[in-house]
Fold this protein.
Amino acid sequence: MDCILFTVRRLAAASVVVFCLVGLVGCGRSGPKTHPVKGKVVSEKAGVLQKLAGSSIELRSEVEPNTRGFGILEPDGSFTISTYRLGESLPGAIEGKHRARIMIDMGDEDDDRPRKKKWPIDPKYTRFETSGWEITVPTDGEVLLKLP
C-alpha cells in the first residue's frame, strides 16, 4: 500500500511540475506572426554602400503604421529585418505591405566619429512617402532596394 501511495504522490508531483512548465512556456511567442526579410541595397555609384554602412533600413506596415521593422546596413548593402512592437523584438516583419526608407547615420558629436556634412544619397530615400520602395511580406526571396 505504501508503494502505491508513493507512486500516486510521485505522479501528482510530476503532473504539477508539467502543469507549471506549460504555464510558464505558454502556447508560444506573443505578438503577431512575422516572416523573415533579408535584402540588399544596391547602387550604381561606387562607394555609396560603404558610406551607408551602419545606417538602417526601416519598414512601416501599411496595416499597422506603428509597427516598424529595422535592419542595419552592412558595408555590402545587406540587411536583415527585425520588428519592434510593444517593447518586444521579433525576427522578420509582419505580413502585408510595407513602405521602406533609409535612416542615415550622420555621426554624432558625442561619440568619437566626425559628423558627416553631406548626405551620401538623395534625401528622398529617407522618407517613406518619397522613397518609392514598397515591400510585400512574406517576400519571394531577397529584397532589392535600388539607389541610382
